[in-house]
Amino acid sequence: MTTEAPVKSPSTARFLSQLDMTAPPLEVRNLHVEFHTTSGEAHAVNGMNFVLSQGETRAILGESGSGKSVTAQAIMGILDSPPAKITHGEILYRGVDLLKLSDEDRRRVRANHIAMIFQDALSALNPVFTVGFQLGELFRKHRGMSRQASKAKAIELLDMVKIPAAKQRVNDFPHQFSGGMRQRVMIAMALALEPEILIADEPTTALDVTVQAQVMGLLSELQREHNMSLILITHDMGVVADVADSISVMYAGRVVEDAPVADIYARPAHPYTKALLESIPRVDLKGQELAVIKGLPPVLTNIPPGCAFHPRCRYAKDNCKVPPEPPHYDVDVNRVAACHYWREVIES
Amino acid sequence: MGRYVIRRVLQFIPTVLGTMFLLHYLTSLGIQLTGNPVRALFGDRTPTPAMMAALSERLNLNDPCLTQTGNPCIGLFGERLVNIAQWDFGISLTGQREVTDIIGAALPYTIRIALIGFVFEAFVGILAGVLAGLRSGGFLDYFVKISTTLIIAVPIFVLGIVIREFVAVKFGNQLRADPNFPEIISRGFLAAGYKPDYPWASLFIPGLVLGATSLAVTARLTRTSMVENVRADYVRTARAKGLMPRRITGVHTLRNSLIPVVTSLGVDLGVLMGGAVVTETIFNVPGIGRVAAQSARTGDASVVIGIVTLAALIFLVANLLVDILYAVLDPRIRYE
Amino acid sequence: MSDLIPSATSDEPALQSSSSEGAGATGGTASLWSDARKQLIRNPIFVISSLYILVVSSMALFPGLWTDQDPRNCIISQSRKPPQDGHPFGFNILGCDYYSHAIYGAQPSLSIAIGATVGIVLIGGTLGLLAGFYGGWVDTIISRVVDIFLSLPFLLGALVFLTVVKVQNILTITMVLVILGWTTIARVMRGAVLSAKNLDYVLAARSLGAGNLRIMLRHILPNAIAPVTVLATIALGSFVAAEATLTFLGVGLQPPEESWGIMITDHQVYFLEAPWLLIFPTTLLIGTVLSFILMGDALRDALDPKMR
Prior knowledge:
heterotrimer, A: alpha/beta, 8-stranded mixed beta sheet, 13 helices, C: MetI-like fold, AAA+_ATPase (chain A), ATP-binding (chain A), ATP binding (chain A), ABC_Ni/Peptide_Import (chain A)
């Protein structure tokens, strides 16, 4: 895809000069996000940490309510504030703390540098505007391009995501596309301005299995072509195994294990990760009872003290039930686990 | 889109016929139940059978089917349809004038007052609804909620009377007593009824009263629509695209929110026509609403039937146009 | 969209069929109503409105409890005297005790409203149920009929009817309201039935061999009742207002009947010199209409499963 020099206003140039291209594309440090609800403060994110390296695909894995989507939206800066509040932490894009940026700069980062795609493409796209309009909008507003030029770009994008008959389809409305096609449109929209980082929030959850594979394949291909770093948010361990380089496993708003993919699948170091892996139904174990994780995820207004997982954990001992939370023990190079007894977990 | 339009037009035609028939049936039934309305014109005097027959024939009321209760009078219906197609709505029972003349003379006033009411309702209603929806939970939102509930609860004639007495009479008298006050305001805008000297200004307050209830409904509908759409997923996507908040609200949210509102405004035409009856009576506006009310009181059936037929036709045409407009605004409908 | 019964009075989007969450047989809907009851009792607006309606109803049913004056005992020399001892509302233009007029005036207004509401629920409800349940030709015809009736603006339709039926009493006015008002109930019922029809447990009942009538009565109807109840409550208020409006135009009730509409109409020009003549019946009228509408709104919020 041809790159046109973006229209550089003085403020854009100033912003770009702040970036440290040697720093990792994204680093989240000790992020805390709270939601104000009628039943108290819900602690959605409690000390989220990870580093995203250049060209890496990092999966953020967790159940509903683990805080993964909130983290993503916090990074993008699109949380509804109120009721959400970022109470602590830093989000460093190439060394620049996004939380300290002006509104205008923050807005500039979106779509230009960090982009996001969502789970349900039908509701995520505006039903009353054509796909061409919604794609072209990015070029008209961020690059100051004309309507005609933007439309040409939109057609290029649709080609890039392998939507057939792009020239005609560009005038169609979102509801005229199938589920998989719509997701491709969203991907096209996210990649339009060639961002460095793409956050994909459950991109395939709403799709059929075969379509899932196609979309994930497209995503990987485009990532390689554009040298992007990808954050993949999901609860599906199968997708993770195919695509990710490293995983952050989240529970109750914290990372409980962070490791390269192969290591985690072979020898998990945290009871929660281990339980998740064990609960995947396996064809070769047909006839045996399905393993489940007993208990329920914690209510975010009332997270258990000490290790949040202790009520459901079979390795839990007394010191797990009292504060402080287990620190991130170094299991290996590039590998941490927030469990006092990680050695036991690895060996069993 | 073309198929959608054709389908709507095809549905329109039987509906029009059905409405005409309904009116015809109601009126025939009424006559069958309570006797020839011509009889009532004579008051206490007893007309000779010859007079009755002559007058009935002139007014098209001498069909024998009108003496049989329940008879749908298809023949009569057919005749009426043919007449309507030729723009003949019959003759007023009392004044012997052509109904079309009466309507023609009165219609311009009603159009004026309806226009004022409509502009008022659309402008203020949408504005209030958008602002209330954007600042949901705030003071403006609360104010809009309460005031619109009150307006809807107060019957339009009460509203009209109170405003007439308070504003036009009491306040207006004070201003009219002051010779220095500009006449356009004291005698025009604050007139307690229609004044030929100020054909538009004196209809201003009646127009506002006419549009008041519809304004409340529009404001509430807009507010609800805005609140729904502000939380929508596509708004989140628009934010993720780094668009400016003004554009997100003004282009993305608004465009979706206004769809139900615009179509509701179109349907409002019927409401305005009905409300005009009351408003014109209160403020003495010589429009078709007042004519209808007066004719109803005197029992002049052909005028009332004529006016209502016209109103129903206008309403149906407006509905058809609104349906088409809806498809223009919401692409999801076009491809049904 | 009938202008007679406003449906957009709530700030929440139109009530979906209460069964959208698969309430599960009649047990689920029973809990919907008991939950709603609990919520309503705690809603101050609902409580106040219901109390007001109870007060007004008792005025209509037992006027003797409220006043011992005879509204027809009029002494012309008392005309338009202000409120005084024993006559809290003063005297009207004919010298009759205004307070007793107001009390006795409650009855025709409420009878018409209740009668008309029962009428539209029976007729509109049945037609809506049939249209939604059987679909196909039945639905097409009934929907077309609904469209036809809706093309008559309320006041104009009422004028036509009351002009040719020259009798003006409680019965004819009630009939007019029913003829012009059944369509809103029919639409809502039809919509509710359509959503209820596709619920899993209804399909299950059918596959177990339940006949049409049984399905209609035991499974679909309980779910569709909720939105109809909301609308009926609001309709009560609209009908009170409608009767007063018709009376004002001269085609409604006539003296010597007493009703709030007549009181307002007859005394509108005395607003400046004897404001109480207008204020009292107006307040009663607005209060009644407002109470019904607020009750309907509160009911709608309480029955909306999305708020659970």
